[in-house]
Amino acid sequence: MSALLFLYGVVLDVKLPWLGEIKRPTRPRRLPVVLSREEVHMILAHMEGTPALMARLMYWFFPAPGLSRDPRSGAVRRHHMFEETLQRTFRRTVQMAGIPKQATTHALRHAIAMHLL
Question: What pTM does this model have?
Answer without folding.
Answer: 0.53
